[in-house]
Amino acid sequence: MHLVMPAGAIDQRTRQWRTKPKRKKAAGAYLFNHKALAKVFRAKLLAALEAAGLHLPPAYPADWVVDCKSVGNGQSALVYLGRYLYRGVIREQDIVVCADGKVTFRYRDAQSGKMMLRTVSGPEFLWLVLQHVLPKGFRRARNFGFLHPNCKHLIALLHLLLKFIPTLASDCVKPRPAVRCPCCGAAMKIVKTRIPASGPPRTPPPVHTARATSAR
């Protein structure tokens, strides 16, 4: 689960924009201490489950993996999340061999950064893939604060406080080149467009021809 949140917010008392003071790299370039965040997140989630009458199995992990880091202006986060959200679990070209009930695939080792090979049985390979399939109703990434889609009024207030004029998406679109007439070379104007039918192409009905018979 990924949660994208801004490193700043509007102060409720002064109605001014406030940001987190920059820390030194030695102290960690993240908004919160990830170890403390892991403990607080785990405790709050378990308390909410207990209040809802839900009980986890006794063998759930004691330590939860939580990471919180700064991504600067967000460009690197967009690149990472884009690959994570819209790319499959494994590329087809990374599946090297699939024979005799076993699958050999290529992966990048997180510690060394080198490409490694691993061979597992077919059911184990399917289980590794299914671990990345989210249950119904879950999302891979969520947005917090003014990044949430329902915070249009808050974003408008931020534009006013920060004196920011947003760039329209239409301004970034390159103009479409004109279609030239094949006869005179002048620019043509599109008057009407036709959307092709989405269904399968219709085939004409078969024509039945009667056999010619000769009478004696």
Structure, explained:
With 216 residues, the chain is α+β, with helices and mostly antiparallel strands. The strands form 4 sheets. It has a 3-stranded antiparallel sheet. Strands 1-7 form a two-stranded parallel sheet. The chain is flat. The termini are far apart. The C terminus is likely disordered.
Describe how the helices and strands are arranged.
Layout: E1 2-4, E2 8-10, E3 17-19, H1 34-51, H2 75-86, E4 95-99, E5 102-108, E6 115-121, H3 122-130, E7 141-143, H4 152-161, E8 179-180, E9 187-188
So what's the overall shape? flat
Average predicted confidence as pLDDT: 77
Strand content: 15-25%
Number of helices: 4
The main pleated sheet reads as: 3 strands, antiparallel
Output the structural class: alpha+beta
The run of helices and strands is EEEHHEEEHEHEE
The termini sit apart by 87 Å
Share of helix among residues? 10-25%
* Radius of gyration from CA coordinates: 29 Å
DSSP strand tally: 9
What are the segments in which pLDDT stays under 50 over at least 5 consecutive residues? 212-216
Strand order of the largest sheet: 4-5-6
